[in-house]
Amino acid sequence: MTTTARSAPPFGRALCAMITPFTDGGALDLGGAQRLADRLVSLGCDGLVLSGTTGESPTTTDAEKAALVEAVREAVGGRASIVAGVGTSDTRHTVELALAAEKAGADGVLVVSPYYSRPPQDALEEHFRTVADASGLPVVLYDIPGRTGTRIEPDTMLRLAEHPRIVAVKDCSYDFLAAQKVLARTDLAYYAGCDEHNLALYAVGGAGYISTVANVVPDRLRAVLDAFEAGDTPVSARLQLRATPLIEAMMSAGLPGAVTAKALLNELGLPAGPVRAPLRPAGREAVDGLLTAYRELTDG
């Protein structure tokens, strides 16, 4: 049985890092985004994270980002939270995107560490504080040093946790010890950003997950958390392990999650469309491998 009472996470427990559907010609497909969002929420997602890594945010315009929030909000209403990715390498631009997301109807913003410039920790802390001060929306810190080149160090997290609007972390640090250290000393809601950590982080007090794989199997991932909440740890572990081959195929086989998620969604006849350059679509061999992993999970 679970032994620790949990407070309600700020954006729900089961969040999908949603892809951004495009038309065959590469334009933003708002109708497709609405259909996909409705499906994800109907199959168990408490929240949707838009314009993140999986949402191909580096290749969408500011106007497209705002339009996506507005369209998805129209589709899901109050059934799910919407967190808008607003992180850039420019503090001023990030503030502008946060204000636009607030106007468009987002419930929170996801702010990644500024990439390429690799600011030191004091500058990084100031960046996040500036964004948090700029709007009324709660902030999710996005720690993914493998992409940004800059870690949000645990001591920086501890200081940022004191800000009233910095409420959560999407953790892609692959540092489980640091995550537990911050969990033990703050009220930050920690969301697993790597699907293989969904259950492990939840078991030590994490808030849930922000998942790329949930684009394809939202109900299967939600079932892992539901079983753990019901006190059936062996079932939750078994469900997590059953999902592992698909997680590996989508996230650790050499292709970005946006590519693999869109490949599967397209094969399943669901809204996705192409990826935008410089990303390229998955080849046939990769798609066949993804389909095999998907079928092994969903046919059982």
UniProtKB/TrEMBL annotation:
<feature type="site" description="Part of a proton relay during catalysis">
    <location>
        <position position="53"/>
    </location>
</feature>
<keyword id="KW-0704">Schiff base</keyword>
<feature type="active site" description="Proton donor/acceptor">
    <location>
        <position position="142"/>
    </location>
</feature>
<dbReference type="InterPro" id="IPR005263">
    <property type="entry name" value="DapA"/>
</dbReference>
<keyword id="KW-0220">Diaminopimelate biosynthesis</keyword>
<keyword id="KW-0028">Amino-acid biosynthesis</keyword>
<dbReference type="InterPro" id="IPR020624">
    <property type="entry name" value="Schiff_base-form_aldolases_CS"/>
</dbReference>
<comment type="function">
    <text>Catalyzes the condensation of (S)-aspartate-beta-semialdehyde [(S)-ASA] and pyruvate to 4-hydroxy-tetrahydrodipicolinate (HTPA).</text>
</comment>
<protein>
    <recommendedName>
        <fullName>4-hydroxy-tetrahydrodipicolinate synthase</fullName>
        <ecNumber>4.3.3.7</ecNumber>
    </recommendedName>
</protein>
<dbReference type="InterPro" id="IPR013785">
    <property type="entry name" value="Aldolase_TIM"/>
</dbReference>
<keyword id="KW-0963">Cytoplasm</keyword>
<dbReference type="InterPro" id="IPR002220">
    <property type="entry name" value="DapA-like"/>
</dbReference>
<feature type="binding site">
    <location>
        <position position="210"/>
    </location>
    <ligand>
        <name>pyruvate</name>
    </ligand>
</feature>
<comment type="subunit">
    <text>Homotetramer; dimer of dimers.</text>
</comment>
<dbReference type="InterPro" id="IPR020625">
    <property type="entry name" value="Schiff_base-form_aldolases_AS"/>
</dbReference>
<keyword id="KW-0456">Lyase</keyword>
<dbReference type="GO" id="GO:0008840">
    <property type="term" value="F:4-hydroxy-tetrahydrodipicolinate synthase activity"/>
</dbReference>
<comment type="pathway">
    <text>Amino-acid biosynthesis; L-lysine biosynthesis via DAP pathway; (S)-tetrahydrodipicolinate from L-aspartate: step 3/4.</text>
</comment>
<dbReference type="Pfam" id="PF00701">
    <property type="entry name" value="DHDPS"/>
</dbReference>
<comment type="similarity">
    <text>Belongs to the DapA family.</text>
</comment>
<feature type="site" description="Part of a proton relay during catalysis">
    <location>
        <position position="116"/>
    </location>
</feature>
<feature type="binding site">
    <location>
        <position position="54"/>
    </location>
    <ligand>
        <name>pyruvate</name>
    </ligand>
</feature>
<keyword id="KW-0457">Lysine biosynthesis</keyword>
<feature type="active site" description="Schiff-base intermediate with substrate">
    <location>
        <position position="170"/>
    </location>
</feature>
